[in-house]
């Protein structure tokens, strides 16, 4: 996916043309006439000549008003493309809204819309706070599928899902009582912070119980020379490497800074990790108001500091010193402030959000523009994720239709996003609002990916992953999602979607019911119209002529003489579209 610099557009400057009146000639002629009148001929004595200066006439400058540039409203295809980057799916009504309102107005409304019901409240409403489910993890799966399929605030939830792949906590790595509630709270932190400030989100993540268990902050204690115990360094390492600044110093455009030998410059060393780890000692559950199992607030409350277990030593990292004997809460604030204000954070976080929402290989200029917004939202505020998300989605490169013709531009749709798009596009529901969709990580029989189910803190894929032995590799381009792609996952996805499109998933037990496909059935007898509709909603009109022809020819062989036949044609068309290369690579 080519790194390509985009011109930001030509700026037209309207100069002001000012015509100054030259009065010198007029004044000279007027004086001559007056002298002639007063002299009465050549021989008279003229002691005084009265010269009257004419009034100065000031000609106003000519102001050239620049032409008003009227941006045409987005086409249906452009609106759909925007929606598929900003959220999970595109509907007829949403496409119409973007066309009538424009990108910025529509997006602003979504960014300022209130959040919907939390994952914690949903679990409570379903009665999962009983001893029967205390050790279970599957309710967390149900919770998050409900959140990303059924929630109205699609933009917020899409950004939260992207953040869950940066600030990773996996359900598989939180083996504690009430872990489904712990994961719900972690998801709620991401959803609440998705459009807030990065600094506030970083603190919430640091003190979150699920993260505390996942990366060993919970129960982490100061050094004990008698036993040889040292502070656990896990969170100190990952908060720098994965959550904030990365391994190497960055320019604003996301490229590595280099030393005099052309080598990247490291951001921190092992000594910094060991020193920073002291700051994250002394934290454990806050059990205030908690009732084990029925109201497990210990996994919802922010972790509480036990000062007696907190290291009092001096901490030196990132050019910052936390003095010895600093109060633990103050030490944490100083450390997080130092991380937050590091120059790497803007490009590091901005590039990954671009990768998750728009393209795997943004140009350096694209990264720099978004990182600049991270550094200053226009009102002097650093880390405002709401304006960062808007900058990502409204950037000229994201909206550039010419990118559709660039083979290496875009990103592979993650498997879990394909399922969510299908469910939201066609209105899949869950019997009894149960959302009994469990872990879909099995690559052979399911999607090979499931939300909040990464196998490690390094996410399902690395942001810098390059598929080996490929054209992308020879071009030095990244394709993170391809780390999930192999023969098993390709076949598993197609087989899973074949059955899900037709029968839903776990429908008899409260999973996903098969949609009615009413709008599509109305077009079943017209293969061209049916595929055009699916092309717009699922692919933003990006299916090539050859692919469309192949699908149309294929589905035309399916008889629509019966209702079952018509439904079969619709379902086959959806599957073929969702199996096409133009669908799998989102532009």
Biggest sheet strand order reads 1-2
Give the overall pLDDT as a whole number: 90
Calculate Rg over CA atoms.
Answer: 32 Å
Give the strand content: under 5%
Give the total of beta strands: 6
Count of helices? Answer: 25
Distance between the termini: 11 Å
Largest sheet: 2 strands, antiparallel
Tell the overall outline: globular
| Helix vs. strand class | mainly alpha
Q: Stretches where pLDDT falls below 50 for ≥5 residues?
A: 1-53
Helix content: 40-55%
Written overview of the protein:
It is a single chain. It contains 25 helices and six strands. Residues 1-53 have low confidence and may be disordered. The protein has helices at 24-39, 76-86, 92-101, 103-111, 119-125, 138-150, 154-164, 179-193, 198-206, 209-214, 234-241, 270-277, 328-340, 345-357, 364-375, 385-394, 396-399, 415-426, 471-474, 487-503, 518-521, 527-539, 545-556, 563-579, 581-584; strands at 283-284, 304-305, 315-317, 320-322, 411-412, 585-586. It is mainly alpha-helical. Helix content is 44%, strand content 2%. Among the domains are: 205-343, no CATH class; 345-401; 411-456 and 490-586, no CATH class. It has a two-stranded antiparallel sheet. A two-stranded antiparallel ribbon has the order 3-4. Strands 5-6 form a two-stranded antiparallel ribbon.
């Amino acid at each position: 996916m080519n790194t390509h610099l985009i011109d930001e557009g030509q700026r037209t400057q309207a100069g002001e043309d000012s015509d100054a009146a030259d009065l010198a000639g007029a004044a000279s002629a007027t004086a001559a006439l007056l002298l002639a009148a007063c002299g009465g001929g050549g021989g008279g004595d003229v002691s005084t000549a009265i010269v009257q200066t004419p009034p100065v006439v000031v000609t106003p400058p000519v102001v050239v008003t620049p032409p008003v540039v009227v941006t045409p409203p987005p086409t249906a295809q452009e609106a759909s493309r925007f929606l598929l980057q900003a959220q999970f799916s595109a509907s007829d009504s949403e496409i119409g809204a973007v066309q009538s309102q424009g990108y910025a107005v529509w997006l602003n409304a979504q960014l300022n819309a209130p959040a919907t019901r939390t994952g914690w409240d949903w679990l409570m409403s379903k009665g999962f706070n009983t001893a029967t489910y205390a050790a279970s993890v599957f309710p967390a799966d149900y919770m998050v599928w409900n959140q990303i399929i059924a929630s109205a605030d699609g933009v917020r939830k899409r950004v939260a899902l992207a953040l869950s792949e940066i600030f990773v906590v996996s359900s598989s790595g939180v083996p504690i009582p009430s872990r489904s509630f712990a994961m719900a709270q972690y998801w709620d932190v991401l959803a609440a912070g998705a459009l807030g400030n990065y600094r506030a989100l970083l603190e919430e993540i640091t003190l979150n119980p699920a993260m505390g268990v996942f990366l060993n902050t919970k129960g982490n204690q100061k050094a004990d020379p008698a036993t040889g115990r040292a502070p656990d360094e896990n969170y100190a390492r990952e908060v720098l490497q994965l959550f904030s600044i990365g391994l190497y110093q960055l320019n604003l455009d996301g490229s590595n800074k280099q030393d005099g030998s052309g080598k990247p410059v490291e951001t921190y060393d092992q000594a910094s990790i060991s020193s920073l780890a002291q700051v994250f000692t002394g934290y454990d559950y806050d059990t205030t108001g908690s009732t084990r199992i029925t109201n497990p607030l210990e996994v919802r409350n922010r972790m509480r500091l036990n000062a007696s277990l907190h290291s009092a030593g001096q901490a030196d990292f990132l050019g910052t010193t936390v003095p010895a004997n600093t109060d633990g809460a103050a030490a944490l604030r100083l450390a997080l402030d130092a991380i937050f204000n590091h120059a790497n954070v803007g490009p590091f976080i901005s590039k990954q959000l671009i990768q998750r929402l728009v393209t795997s290989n943004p140009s350096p200029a694209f990264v720099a523009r978004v990182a600049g917004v991270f550094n200053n939202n226009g009102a002097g505020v650093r880390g405002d994720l709401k304006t960062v998300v808007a900058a990502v989605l409204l950037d000229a490169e994201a909206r550039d239709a010419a990118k559709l013709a660039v083979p290496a531009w875009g990103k592979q749709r993650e498997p879990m996003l394909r399922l969510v798009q299908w469910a939201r596009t066609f209105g899949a529901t869950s019997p009894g609002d149960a959302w009994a969709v469990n872990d879909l990580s099995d690559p052979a029989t399911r999607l090979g990916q499931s939300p909040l189910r990464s196998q490690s803190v390094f996410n399902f894929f690395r942001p810098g992953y390059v598929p080996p032995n490929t054209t992308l590799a020879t071009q030095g381009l990244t394709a993170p999602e391809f780390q999930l792609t192999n023969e098993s996952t390709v076949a598993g996805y197609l087989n899973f979607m074949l059955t899900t499109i037709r029968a839903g998933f776990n429908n008899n037990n409260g999973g996903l019911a098969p949609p009615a496909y009413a709008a599509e059935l109305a077009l079943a007898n017209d293969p061209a119209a049916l595929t055009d509709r699916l092309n717009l909603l699922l692919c933003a009109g990006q299916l090539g002529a050859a692919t469309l022809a192949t699908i149309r020819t294929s589905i035309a062989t399916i008889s629509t003489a019966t209702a079952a036949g018509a439904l079969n044609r619709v379902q086959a068309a959806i599957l073929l579209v969702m199996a096409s290369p133009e669908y799998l690579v989102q532009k």
